[in-house]
Amino acid sequence: MKAAIVTEQGVQVRDVPEPQPGPQEVLVRVRAAGLNRADLGVAAGHAHGRIGGPGTILGLEFAGEVAAVGSEVPDTIRPGQRVMASGAGGYAEYAVADWGRVCPLPDANMGWVQAATLPIALQTMHDAVATNGALKAGESILIQGASSGVGLMGMQIAKLMGARQVLGGSRNPAARSRFAEFGCDLAVDTADPAWPERVLEATDGRGVEVIVDQVSGGVANGNLRACAILGRIVNVGRLGGSRGEFDFDLHALRRIRYIGVTFRTRSVEEVREINRRMRADLWGAVEAGKLRLPVDRVFPLAEAAEALAHMRANTHFGKIVLEC
């Protein structure tokens, strides 16, 4: 099969053996694969959890038809089904995923490209907003790094859950101008050093009850200022750097719960539960077309390196997808 792999000469599409599913795995004939920021690090030769290094097939989410199932896969997943999944090796004609990370597509009207944009965003942001952020109806929330596909999904999930105010942080003015399409009540320019004051003004001095932070680095102390007393900050990503100043006294004064999350150290059972909870809460909205992501550009699998370069340029809005 064809697959985009990491080599000493960069990302190249080569012929590689077709993967075989284990007893609890599903083999998918991939039709489309979504790009994610983590793919850039793997493409550069870095490890991402258990994957990385020369020979690694890139990709963390995909959609296609079930080609085969392992002997211990529940009979709700069958060959021929149209599915979306999170799992390694999605930039390929075939990929395997644990059965607990596989979701049948809502209906025949959802195309492969749209389906490939959803698994990571739905799982990551339901876990951050609902499970770890414990957002309640009537509370306010700030999504940092809101212009990413995951961020856009976070704002939609928060609005669906009844948030009183949904705020989205970004340094990109073109992206901020579109946030209202995705449930955002106030777009915050985090390039302005006074952005925490704007958040406080918008919340009558209280601050937001929940912050989902995909940026870290330079916004860490601003998050502490913008967060309500007894608020929650969920650290999901470090797009702005994994090191930065942190005002421990302000953290204590505001009695903030600071929660770090990542899929890299979660067990198979934990990820299955994340996917189960997401489907329990959100699948009706997915089926109704209420949770969707914009597609910035679609590349053929043969142009995987060009697709990654497009992501690296950071000029896109929404998801970049490979057709396989």
UniProtKB/TrEMBL annotation:
Residues 10-322 form the Enoyl reductase (ER) domain. The keyword Glycosyltransferase does not apply. GO terms for molecular function: NADPH binding; oxidoreductase activity, acting on NAD(P)H. Signal peptide: none annotated. The keyword Oxidoreductase applies. InterPro entries: ADH-like_C, ADH-like_N, ER, GroES-like_sf, NAD(P)-bd_dom_sf. Pfam families: ADH_N, ADH_zinc_N. Keywords: NADP, Oxidoreductase. This is Quinone oxidoreductase. It comes from Roseicella aquatilis.
